[in-house]
Amino acid sequence: MKFPSAVRLLVVLWCASLAVFAQNLTSFEKRVTTKVLPNGLTIIICQRHDAPVFSYFTIVDAGSANDPGGESGLAHMFEHLAFKGTKDIGTTNYAAEKVALDKVEQAYAAYDAESLKRVGRDPAKLKQLHAAFQQAVSEAQKYVIPNQFTEIAEENGAVGLNAETSLDATQYYWSMPSNRLQLWAYMESDRIANPVPREFYKERDVVMEERRMRVDSSPIGRMVEQFLAAAYMAHPYRRPGVGWSSELEHITATEAEAFHKKYYVPSDIVIAVVGDVDPAEAMPVLEKYFGAIPAGPQPEPMTTIEPPQTAEKSVIIKEPTQPFYIEGYHKPDYRDPDDAVYDAIGDILSNGRTSRLYRSLVRDQQIAVEAEGFSGFPGVKYPGLFAFFAVPAPGHTPQEMQAAIHKEIDKLKTTDVTDDELAMFKTRARADILRGLADNQGLAEQLAIYQLRYGDWRELFNQLRKIDAVTKADIHRVANKIFVPTNRTYAMVEFQPPQQTQQTKGGAR
Amino acid sequence: MPTLRKNSAIAFFLVLLCIPSAFAQTEQAQPWKQIPIPPLHPFHPQQPKRIKLPNGIVILLQEDHELPFINGFIEMRGGSRDQDASKAGMVGLYGDTWRTSGTATHNGDQLDDLLEARAAKVETGGDTDSTSLSWSCLTKDEDFVFSIVIDLLEHPAFREDKLQLAKQQAAAAIVRRNDDAEGIAAREATRLVYGPNSPYGRQPELATIKAVTVDDLKRWHDRTVVGSNIIIGVSGDFNSDAMEKTLRDAFSSLPKGEPVPPLKEDFSGPKPGVYYVDKSDVNQSNIYIVGLGTERSNPDFFALSVMNEIFSGGFGSRLFQTVRTKLGLAYAVGGGYGAGYDHPGMFRVVAGTKSPSTIQATQAMFVEIRDLKSKPFTEDELRRAKDEVLNSFIFNYDTKDKVLAEAAKLEFYGYPADFLEKYRDSVEKVTVADVERVAQKYIEPSKLAVLIVGNEKEFGAPLTSLNMGTPHAVDITIPGLPPQGQDQPGNPEGEQ
Questions:
Q1: What is the value of ipTM here, to two decimals?
Q2: Do B484 and A354 touch (CB under 8 A)?
Q3: pLDDT tens-digit profile of B276-332?
Q4: Within this chain, do residues B202 and B56 fall inside the same structural domain, yes or no?
Q5: Which among A48, A249, B196, B345 is placed 20 to 30 Å from A290, CA to CA?
Q6: Tell me, which fold does domain A313-508 have in CATH?
Q7: B458 touches chain A (CB under 8 A)
Q8: Best of B63, B398, B403 to disrupt the A interface by mutation (most A CBs within 10 Å)?
Q9: What is the pLDDT of residues B333-355, one digit of tens each?
């Protein structure tokens, strides 16, 4: 560091920003109201009256890691269904539609069973069963008002309407003018309580397209799928969230309904609302709608724990795309006492142009155009990976990325990080939390996630204590603990000209 | 800027209207229609304070004391569309090198240390029609961070080593640009519409970035960083009077200079036909149907916006309902009749579908395009489209930062300050007849080009079955790409 006064200056700034922070936190706490309803569902309201709008974030503590064996892609498939309406919305006559939908399931089950027969499959019968299935679908379609659920939302001014399924959780969100709060509460509670799997098999085709887009037709998507499948042998983090094609192709509406019944229980759901909302007025309204969702038993916790890795694993992909490198080391889940230490390592290695990987691989050696390390991939709820990736500069190879990353890791293991680096991490973590308070949607997301993961949204701020407590010795200790070759999996894409007829798309070696 | 008094009354009226209209045939209870929608709280978005300095600089100040941060931007007119064709990519290199080189006092690496220690950012960038210098910091660091901003504006260093670093990054992007099928489709579609060598179609190549020198960057800086070419916006935790004084003191000495003139070019749109890029490692086709769009200053812009909403504006739109919901042919589907601020936008209809349904999906997209002219728009479609636009209108200005950004954009392109308000009022007045009229006037299927990026041998049916003449292969070869791989000096992708 070329500025001897910088450290002293930092200490002064540090105290100043602590005061600013405490002040903001106290005023912030007054704006938040939390209530756990009798059915177990948690509601958080945070007042922000700048403009007559609100944003919400619903998080369900079930994600693709909860997909049953042989049904990968189910959690994500259900998320798509949650936009297809309810017993009231999206139908001209639910009673009649229900009868028709049951027939669709029977017809599909018969067709699916025949198509999967190993011995004695009858092509004529299969054709006939497929026709019967399609006939049943057309019958059910007569009652559908397509996309009515989303249309009601959009006509009423919803923006940013979307949902995501991660391996850890499923989340739904949008923003709306604040005079539509009651309408939203009705809609959101209705789709949590009464989703109807209409148009299921066409939506499954849509999800297959999503898979082709995100994975099959994307070099990085393909590589990440291979990488995770190699890094995990037991835990469901090894499976792609969108599902394996062969399993996705056979998912049924019946299975999706079973997933919903088991995992969408109110005690596993947190909903945060941020914006122009008065809790005294709004909470009774939200209680009325969300309190009506029937309680259910907690699903059994996952028992699978990834066994310790005992040997380095690798995936070498040779194909006509530009080279890429990724590696990962198993680490504990987010509840680990060292969680903030991993964040510190990620920040010091990767955050911006002062980071070690940028300065070493990008700026000084000029072998990469991008290089980062980060904690919690592909998830945080269960033990994930501390992962590194690097994008080689033209003419440079994945092997050079690997060697350069390992050199930086070795430095962490042998030499303490500097005071400046550690202070920078803490200052930036603090500022990032403050910056996040300015955006209704982002804040709703943070409040809901922290409430779900820690049982108290205040942990969003309390984590600063853990961040403050990180020492150089912690970083040294943790780096030596996890960054060892037997705990490592790496994947690389090596360029191979397209003319070759036999292409190896990948595989562990 | 609009207030919401009027808007909420209208919203209320529309809600009353929709009770009997939507699905009168249904036997289903519709409980949501009984839910009251109270008037929206009155809302008067805070307008930024506008100051014009004698040297032409326009300053917009937006006080916001919620959090202890200050954010600012300095925008200069002129961007990649204004650079020499033989040095395509220069503005991008300028945007990178300006900041990483630092100033005469502190080099870029020293700035990184100084700023990151305060969780502050100062960044520079180059775009199609502008370059920018922006900052973000805690209130207590404003004086220090702003002094860096001014130093960077007045005494940029533009160092050779940092230009080389930026060139390497740019070269990596060029070399990698054919790996991503979606990226190829978006890029080549733009080139079809505006012409591959036009200011909007040309792209950086290895040779054009190699040609850029430090002197080019300095010349660009001296030309664009002049008073009459600059708009400044600052938002956050400050006192406007004090900030005004700071900015006047800092910027009044800048020479007035000449603004970068608006780029006036005539575009005739794509040469109609079918174009394709064969990519063997994908199982999904990216389909782009494209033509020329319009400008926002066009009086028909408002009716076209409503047409867009009906055509492709969300889950309930015609395109989404058909291609995704009814046919299950795509996950990503969208588009619309685009409108630029100072040049025609693109008319784009886009979908990604599995290779074997390429022809079917393309045809389904064309049916929807043709239906804009032949399938009458209904009052119900109009009502829904207007509801979607008007009821969500507040999200154009629900934060002080958005209000500032919008004001700066209108200032930048010379649009009236009340354009957003006019937009809302004009959309309210659009009728079915208006939408019919603009659809007839602007939608011309025979003038459109189709671009497909996909795995041709898996299409199932030949591209000629689209009945749009002989398909043209688009050459996406990267000029000047060196042989690759240490022991396999074969041809890189694209040179097949």
A1: 0.90
A2: no
A3: 999 999 999 999 999 999 999 999 999 999 999 999 998 889 999 999 989 999 999
A4: yes
A5: A48
A6: Cytochrome Bc1 Complex; Chain A, domain 1 (3.30.830)
A7: no
A8: B398
A9: 999 999 999 999 999 999 999 99
